[in-house]
Sequence to fold (324 residues):
Amino acid sequence: MIPAVETCGLVKDYGRTRALRGVDLRVLPGEVFGFLGPNGAGKSTTIRLIMDLLRPTAGTVEVFGVAPAAGGPRLRARIGYLPGELSFPARTTARDHLRYLAALRGGRGVERAAELAERFSLDLSRPLRSLSKGNKQKVGLVQAFMHEPELLVLDEPTGGLDPLLQREFRALARESVAGGATIFLSSHVLGEVEEVAGRVAIIRDGRVVDVDDVRALRARAGQEVLLRFADPVALQEFAGLPGVHDAAVDPADGRTLTCLLRGDPMPLLGAATRHRVVRWQAQDRELEDLFIDFYRDPERSAATTAVPPGPPAGPRHRAPETRR
Ligand code: ADP
Fold:
């Protein structure tokens, strides 16, 4: 099977700044592949290399088995791209802009663009310049999806969209994949990709440090749980339970238990309900928490991690960082 996107040992320098330090990625046709990393990790740089807006310092990129530089307009027509930073012509309305793009693509997508605009409640008669950030993002999404491309390369697609529109975006992404498309999308927030992505690569400091199924990643990240009981509880009842980590009982009141829960919640819930529970709080952990885990316990993280070949000075080998 020819990958939709494949990068091998991708290195990119901006002058003296090394933005990518050997990125290996393989996105298969039909996948929704999340590209997750904090700001400055190298997501946009990788995406611009995929789109042939930049050329690599070293390493290779292929899209549908073709180097983007060699693929030209024919390859480009198979891709829908949402840039991280949108820039539009100043005086044009959204409608004229989308019509112009459709004309460039041989007339493809005019009707679909109108449908998508309707779906995202986007007023096409407004000048692009006057649109809010969220509305500009909608135009960006419409222009990426309107020609029903085989591959969607989306740089932070849900940034600036309210929760309702994020849901609409996810529905659109699922429909596109059901219709045979492949989606490669970046984000700095795990929560934004987990509802839509299958596999996820995590990039940090220009290197892919983890590739995993998003559900496994979520299970690994776990939840911060707080339980308050009517009466004092003993830590030993909870500390050794499967899936329960870092359990602690607040010494001030003796009846507030906090822990990190990974995996099946039943053992913890079973133990908790032997007491009268007066408060229950569970908070999904985020991307930064996963990084903290890498530093704290490299072995456990490594056990479920596919690390691409690279110099041994990867993030996992560095000294622990303090929590931000
Ligand atoms: P992300 O998309 O993950 O936020 P970027 O790919 O934009 O990360 O940036 C990766 C690194 O490259 C950062 O250190 C950033 O400051 C640097 N960088 C990005 N674009 C440029 C540029 N045009 N010139 C110089 N440095 C850049």
About this structure: The pocket of adenosine-5'-diphosphate is lined by residues 14, 17, 19, 37, 39-45 (CB under 6 Å). The first helix runs from residue 43 to 50. Residues 7 and 61 are 4 Å apart (CA to CA). The radius of gyration is 23 Å.
